[in-house]
TrEMBL record:
Annotated CDD domains: REC_OmpR
Keyword DNA-binding among UniProt keywords: yes
Residues bearing the modification 4-aspartylphosphate: 55
Domain Response regulatory: start-end pairs: 6-122
Protein name: Response regulator
GO cellular component: cytosol; protein-DNA complex
Length: 383
């Protein structure tokens, strides 16, 4: 006989504990209840629930602190957490995902919607148990020179992929001291990559990486790099990069890596673990010449042969004097898969509002181009 799944409900409001508990019991779940944060941590350790339904606003230890504590302890690190709270601001949701929540719902909510979210989380968790980890599809994103929008493309592509497929996706910054996503999205915790690069490579595994990932409201998980140049020296830890990328491929259907330039000290180690590389360029002769040399280098890693090179042309400014798509393709001897149009107004709004660019004008031309690129990647992931 199948055992009922255990759900630990954590809320200092007795009425909520009773009503939600009764509703879920009728759905066939076994219910555990905790009325404060400290009690919740203790019960999670001893009872090992299948899922924790966690309130945020509690008097002694708030839900964010509870989640962070559980994620740090090996015996509770993988228990799914659904935050269920009246705190509905975007900042609260970001804080919840950063603390380790798998999902974040705001009160009030229809019981059917709450149950649907619970079932989805439990289903994902169950599918990972007792099954050998299957490697996902790893894509590196890079360019022949800086300032072409590699980081912007990797982040927005990851978000659009999730929106199109609802599959797990991780985007990771690979450049310590040059991180940009934390500042662009207003995320306070950017130590994830630093913390992993300071470990011994043998101590890097899916659990240690999971503890450093930040889930944002757009559905993706991010591994953030520090924006401070004082941390740039960590780039020499090439064995750590290899271990990080190797384990990331076991944690999501798609992993997108912001590599930056081919001068990255761990470029060889990273590219050897990628199934595809997206090369970003622009329609100006000097950049095209450098991109041609980069494409030649990538052939040494099997790209352009048994591994795919995807060429993305970014028009950062509106200019009459620039190469056409046909001229770019002829110069590089490779097809352009996607053209990203200039969008300075969208870029400005995204920066001032701490939003990804595709969230500024949903359904606009820029979002459409990213969506097409994401659809093409999704076809290769599914192949």
């Amino acid at each position: 006989m199948k055992m009922a799944e255990k759900i630990l409900i954590v809320d200092d409001d007795v009425q909520t504990l009773r009503l939600v508990g009764l509703m879920l019991e009728r759905q066939g779940y076994k219910i555990l209840a905790a009325s404060n944060g400290a009690q919740a941590i203790g019960m999670a350790r001893t009872e090992q629930p299948d899922l924790i339904l966690l309130d945020v606003m509690m008097p002694d230890v708030d839900g964010f602190s509870v989640a962070r504590t559980l994620r740090k302890e090996p015996e509770t690190a993988n228990i799914p957490i659904l935050m269920f709270t009246a705190r509905a601001q975007v900042e609260d949701k970001i804080a919840g995902y950063e603390a380790g929540a798998d999902d974040y719902l705001t009160k009030p909510i229809h019981p059917a919607e709450l149950t649907a979210h619970l079932r989805a989380i439990l289903s994902r968790s169950k599918s990972r148990e007792g099954v050998p980890l299957e490697r996902g599809y790893t894509v590196g994103v890079m360019a022949a020179k800086g300032g072409l929008g590699v980081s912007t493309l990797a982040l927005n592509l990851a978000i659009n992929y999730f929106q199109n497929t609802r599959q797990e996706v991780i985007a990771a910054e690979m450049r310590p001291g040059q991180g940009s996503w934390s500042t662009e999205l207003g995320l306070p915790n950017f130590e994830g990559l630093n913390n992993l690069l300071r470990l011994h490579p043998n101590d890097i595994n899916t659990t240690t990486i999971e503890n450093e990932l930040v889930r944002v409201p757009y559905g993706v998980r991010l591994l953030l790099a520090s924006p401070y140049t004082r941390d740039a020296s960590l780039i020499k830890n090439t064995a750590n990069f290899e271990a990080i990328v190797d384990h990331l491929s076991l944690m999501a259907r798609l992993t997108l890596l912001d590599i930056g330039l081919n001068t990255h000290l761990a470029c060889d180690e990273i590219l050897n673990l990628c199934k595809e590389v997206i090369v970003v360029t622009e329609p100006f002769p000097g950049t095209i010449n450098r991109t041609r040399l980069l494409l030649e280098d990538l052939k040494q890693h099997g790209f352009g042969g048994n591994k795919l090179i995807t060429l993305v042309l970014v028009n950062r400014i509106r200019a009459d004097v620039q190469l056409s798509v046909t001229q770019v393709q002829e110069a590089l001897g490779a097809p352009v898969a996607q053209v990203i149009p200039p969008a300075p107004e969208v870029s400005f709004q995204a920066a001032t509002r701490n939003l990804p660019m595709i969230q500024v004008q949903i359904g606009g031309m820029l979002s459409l181009q990213f969506s097409r690129l994401a659809e093409a990647v999704a076809e290769r992931v599914a192949a």
